[in-house]
Write a structure and sequence with these properties.
By secondary structure, this protein is of the alpha+beta class. The chain contains 7 helices and 6 strands.
Length: 194
């Protein structure tokens, strides 16, 4: 009798954004192509939000973004998954020249299951970092969940399409609760793409 091998899959949450064209491809087209690439690479167990138009962050730093979110069931480790995301960004000519700068494609690994990386203290360091320091300093290691998740309507609104009940492993709040805690003006600025 053969024993069955169980492959453990974990739900990973990915935020997608673009605000620069790539040749003839507009940001909307880039996101749709990136979603297709991610689905081909990571498998069929994906959920994808609607596309949304959002103001550039920080305000005034460039053209509006098109944003979306997706979940994928994966056997990859967080670091391996991040490497795949960076590879797809490179396919779409992503340049990492400026923190929070304009880009053809941005794929942010928001969470992998309920993992807190590198550890609770490391997570809290980045969570507590002042905005002025965030603009200058980037982590050298993967921080999960994304330490700015709870601050960003352009991430939380799309996530409510696909995983409103996912619970933040540090704060214990759902995506829906985090979204509803944001100012109404920020939420109203995130508009579905027709």
């Amino acid at each position: 009798m053969r024993s069955k091998v169980t492959i453990l899959r974990t739900k990973a949450i990915i935020a997608l954004g673009a605000n620069l064209p790539l040749g003839e491809m507009l940001p909307r087209d880039i996101l749709l192509a990136a979603i297709k690439e991610l689905t081909l690479l990571l498998g069929e167990l994906c959920q994808v939000s609607r596309l949304f138009q959002t103001p550039c962050f920080p305000v005034g730093a460039g053209p509006d973004y098109v944003n979306a979110a997706m979940t994928v069931e994966t056997t990859l480790s967080p670091s391996d998954l991040l490497q795949h995301l960076h590879g797809i960004e490179q396919q779409f000519s992503r340049l990492r020249e400026q923190r929070w700068g304009m880009r053809t494609l941005d794929l942010d690994l928001i969470a992998v299951g309920d993992q807190v990386l590198p550890d609770s203290a490391g997570y809290m360091y980045w969570y507590d970092l002042a905005v002025e320091q965030q603009m200058k300093e980037a982590p050298k290691e993967l921080i999960l969940p994304h330490p700015r998740l709870q601050d960003r309507a352009f991430v939380l609104v799309p996530l409510c399409d696909i995983c409103p009940d996912w619970r933040h492993p540090v704060f214990g709040k759902t995506i829906l609760e985090l979204r509803d805690a944001l100012p109404k003006s920020e939420l109203e600025a995130v508009l579905p793409v027709e």
